[in-house]
């Protein structure tokens, strides 16, 4: 049998696939090269590089706490007073540098004096290698706390106290003119028992945050289309629809995180992060099917309050500043209905009464005062 002659289209397709594979291979090589450069930029404690100096002081590297695409996080000790801090380092070879932006957010928050944000202690740069910020050390994040509990489940008392503190932290971020846009349990952490802050919850990671207010402008005009920002499990419907996010969308993401803390498993738990349409459909089902919402919360004694919060959030537009106090009052209503007292201990520290900060009602928008 004579060989079948390859058509021009087939030849063209084969050539196209070959070029595509070559392009992907080149991209992978470039990613690997960049990653190696980033790693080489980081402090080399194994080669005696154990001290980092800034204009304010000298820090001794004690341990590596984590590593990511940006660089690494270290525990450091300030030589002047022997106090320990976290030092976040970002390689100069990171394609999209975010550390300077994170520093700007923290500077604004430090002016607010909110208890829910780690103090920015210092910042600096090691020429041609990395930039760094020095922060107050915090403890375990909320995701890690929950998965270590029996049945990976908070008691309702603990879930409600977490809801109260995280709501206040997000509100305070909004008060200085920033959205978070990646509300999820790993981006909140308790303080450390060593400095008696382990009942305080801190808001972390402002890499996806966006400034929405500036001098003379209370709210930036929404862009027509936006890239997806956030984490699929907790993303607001606006994020799913590639629409500009606003304050209400942060609180919607908070609602999903809060709900998960109460019930443990959200209806879309088994969906992959790439299945945004599937997760979006499940989130819409909570609104469209009353039984879905009831089935989720009936056994936890807070269906009325959780339903009221989500209904309220869905009534808001892009321009609206949420009534955070209304949301807080729903949390208090759920606590009272279920006998959760103010000082009842939390799951991560059952041996003592709860001493976390109480939510402070008040002005939801103060960015003008800070400017």
From TrEMBL:
Organism's domain of life? Eukaryota
Give residue ranges for domain Protein kinase.
59-371
Q: Which PROSITE patterns match?
A: PROTEIN_KINASE_ATP, PROTEIN_KINASE_DOM
Amino acids binding ATP: 88
Identify the stretch(es) annotated as Disordered: 1-51
Q: Which Pfam families has this protein been placed in? A: Pkinase
**UniProt keyword annotation of Metal-binding present:** no
Give start-end positions of Basic and acidic residues composition bias.
Answer: 1-35
Q: Name one GO molecular function term.
A: ATP binding
Q: What's the protein called, per UniProt?
A: Protein kinase domain-containing protein
